[in-house]
Every structure is written in C-alpha cells, then in structure tokens.
Specification:
Order of helices and strands: HHEEEEEEHEEEHEHEEEEHEHEH
CATH class of the largest domain: Alpha Beta
CATH superfamily of the largest domain: Zn peptidases
Largest sheet: 8 strands, mixed
Bound molecules: zinc ion
Strand order of the largest sheet: 1-8-10-9-11-16-14-15
Oligomer: single chain
Structural class: alpha+beta
CATH topology of the largest domain: Aminopeptidase
Number of helices: 8
Number of strands: 16
Amino acid sequence: MTKFVSTRFVSTALIVLFPALVRAQSAPMLWAHVEFLASDSMEGRACPSRSCDLAADYILAQFRAAGLETQVQTTEAVFEVRRGETVVHLKEAQLKTPALYANTKVQLDPDQNILAGKEVILDKTPELEPIYNATGDIFITHIPAGLRNVIGVLKGRDRKLRETYVLVTAHYDHVGLKPDGEGDLVFNGANDNASGVAGLIEIARAIASSATRPRRSLAFIAYFGEERGMVGSRYYAQHPIVPVAQTFAQVNFEQLGRPDDSEGPRVKGATVTGWDRSLVGQTLATAATPFGVRIYKHEKFSEVFFERSDNEALAKLGVPAHTISVAYGFPDYHGLGDEASKLDYTNMAIVTKALRRGVMALANRVTSLTPRAGSPAVSVPKVGSSPASPNPKRSRPSPKSPKS
Ligand SMILES: [Zn+2]
C-alpha cells in the first residue's frame, strides 16, 4: 500500500511537473530562434538575398553550437530553358537579376524575347534557337550559385545501422518584402517556417547533448528556396550527401508554432502528410503519447498536402518522407501578420519534445518503415498490410490516433 501510494505520488508529481519542465527547457530557446529569424531586420528571408544568407549563417552557427558535424551544400548555378523535350542550358551571366526560378512558365513577347515577369528577359539569341523550333509551353529553371542547404550530422552508435540516416528537415526561407506600400512591409514568416527551423535546431541540440546516441545516424537539414518551388530540397535530392538507398526516413517540419487552425484549435497535436504511405506517422504517434501529444492523420489533407512540401523530392525517390505540421490553415498564412509574437511557444515546446522522441524512435528502429526500401512512394500499400511489420504490436498506432 505504501509502495502504491508513493508510486502514485511520484507519477502525479511527474504529471504536474512535467509540462513545467518541458516549458522551462525549450520554450525560451524556440522563441529566441523564431524572434531572430522572423524579425523585421531579417526582411522576410527570400532566397536569394542577404537575409537568406543571414538565416543560413545563423542555423549553421546553431548546429555548430549543438556539437553537430556541419557541412554546407552550396548550389552551383543552374540555368535552363525547356520546351517539351528540348532543353537548353544557358550561362548565369545572361540573367539580369539573381532571381530563383523553379520550372516557372514563361511568355514570349512579340519580338520573340523570353519573359519571366519583370525580372528576366532573354533576348532572342542563336543558342535559344532549339527552343523557338520546339512547341508547347516554355519553362525556365534558374538557381543562382551560392545558395545553401545547411546540414548538421550526428553519427549513430550502431556499427552497421549508423551508415543509414534519418533526415530531419525544415525550410528556412520565406517570401521576403512587399514591394510597395506603407507601414509594415515585411513578410516575417514566423510560423512559416521559422517555427520549423526552431524545432529542428532544438531537437538537434537536445539529441546531441543527451547521453545516448540513436542507432542510426541523423542529418539535420535546413533547406533554402521552398517558397520558390521546393528548390532546396529538390537540389538536395539530386545531390544527396547520403546515398538515397541509405536514407531510412525523412521528417520535415512546417508550421509548428500556431495551433489556431482555421478548422479549430490544434493544441498538443501535430499531423503528418501521406500518413498511409509508411509507418513514420504511427511511429511518431506512439513516441508522442507520454507527452499527451496526439500525432494524427488529417483525413482531408493527408494526401492533398503530401507533395506540397520538402518531403516531396525524396518521397519520389522511394524514401519514407513526410511533413509534420501543428496546423495547416492558420490566419496570416503568407501574410504580413505572420509574426513571432503570435506563436504559442508553450505548445510548441511540448510538441517539439514529443517529435524529438519520435525522431529517436525512428533512428532506433531496426525494421523497415515501408514494405520495401526503394518502393515508389505512390505504390506503397496501406500500413495495415505492410509485410515489414511482422509484429503488429510493435508498430500499433497510438490509442488516441484517429486511425485506430
Ligand atoms: Zn510558405
């Protein structure tokens, strides 16, 4: 009886103290990252720009401080014009401003110059001749040299499994400044996506400073250029630092800071895109339950948003890759009002802690997250029929999950 009481006392004390401990540990740090990245002086972090560079510098410094092995993936210039099957590669110098375009549809003017908005005018030159001779819509891709994906690696402890990686990612860019008008002209991008970067940094810091390393290695990656067509993550997928076959999973963070969803409050929860395509969602859900955080499938948007973020490029190469968000439709989305003061850092701290435990669970997991590594994401069967989880008890969804 005494033992029972004391156990209950201890667990009650833990339940009472636990949220306070969580808050004390990480909410101020999350706030600090968001406050800096989404400050007016950062001018909205559009890539390419000085504020894009500053954001990358900041994240690199944070990864170094966390004790990760850092590396920077710097873009080489890509400049191509495509029409149907015809592709012409051009030199970067032909572009008048250093803008970023990802497969952007462009127009021909009456003089047969190629136009992309006001920023790009390509005069009709002999090297573009094949484009004029082709038919169909014209698209340009222009990635300036010098844009950066910032990477921090933490090697795993298992001699074999450490050669495989769980990627934890978030994009650090946003949409920049409003070109004209009065008053506030900064698209701060606090929730989209300084919040995801803050979660990324704090999870990296917490795992790197804990006594036990996970079995598999972790690579934390902050991508440039999501807002211009997921350019940074696509660039990474074309130049991966870890072979795709050794990439065990990717969890990508977007919009972790605001529970005020247009569909109603989303406190102590997060949702995972492409839920049915792998066991990642269920693994995160199970790991989150001790924190009282519900990781769930959004019945309406799970598939709709699957290819709309930085998980898309690796998912198309067969990696179990998903995006995790606290809420999708928050007020101020891509508006001037997406500011640091509107985020709920207490909630964010609890959710981030739960996700950190989920990242550890993924990095410690021995068995595959999909039926076959390398299967095209689109043809992966529903999780329930996965032969890769012979022991269903080990991967059952959380009792709070709407799937159960
Ligand atoms: Zn955005």
